[in-house]
């Protein structure tokens, strides 16, 4: 769906120093999770914080919302585990959740997600919808989700567009 839209203006990126922050977000800024998800060759924590100042409470809230805490129990180095090409072999679902956590840790007021539910099992998809996409860490944000598993989030969505064969066929 995202490849269907024409970009006429805007930016994707980290806010500059001194940019106005309202309610913990930079107005008009965007966080984007692409398909496939990208992780840098550094620790999971550094992948999530991604150059922003570290705030323990915010970080823990994002980890919980993205259901990453339980994964750290099985990784010898926890969130210090190296992700990316030169590091640990994270599962597809773990990479998605790390990328989602980075977007939610950011100051992005608009969060665009390409099918973050596609590589996770049913209980995790349900958790992500109720805690990451509509929970406290998403407060004040506009979340745009392209997914083939809408059943997890459709009740919480304010606006739904159905796309078939590349064409929007319905909205509510």
UniProtKB/TrEMBL annotation:
GO molecular function: ATP binding; ATPase-coupled transmembrane transporter activity
Keyword ATP-binding part of the UniProt annotation: yes
Compartment annotation: Membrane
Keywords: ATP-binding, Nucleotide-binding
Gene3D superfamilies: P-loop containing nucleotide triphosphate hydrolases
Chief place where the protein resides: membrane
Topological relation to the membrane, as annotated: Multi-pass membrane protein
Cellular component GO terms held in the UniProt record: membrane
Name of the protein: ABC transporter-like protein
Organism: Cordyceps fumosorosea (strain ARSEF 2679) (Isaria fumosorosea)
């Amino acid at each position: 769906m995202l490849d269907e839209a024409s970009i006429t203006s805007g930016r994707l990126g980290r806010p500059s120093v001194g940019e106005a922050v309202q309610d913990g977000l930079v107005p008009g800024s965007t966080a984007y999770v692409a398909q496939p998800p990208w992780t840098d060759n550094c620790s999971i924590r550094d992948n999530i914080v991604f150059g922003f100042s570290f705030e323990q409470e915010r970080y823990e809230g994002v980890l919980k919302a993205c259901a990453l805490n339980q994964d750290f129990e099985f990784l010898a180095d926890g969130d210090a585990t190296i992700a990316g090409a030169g590091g640990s072999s994270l599962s597809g679902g773990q990479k998605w959740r790390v990328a989602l956590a980075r977007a939610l840790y950011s100051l992005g007021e608009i969060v665009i997600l390409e099918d973050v539910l596609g590589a996770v099992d049913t209980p995790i998809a349900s958790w992500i919808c109720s805690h990451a996409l509509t929970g406290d860490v998403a407060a004040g944000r506009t979340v745009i989700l392209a997914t083939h598993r809408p059943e997890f989030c459709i009740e919480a969505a304010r606006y739904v567009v159905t796309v078939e064969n590349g064409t929007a066929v319905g909205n509510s």
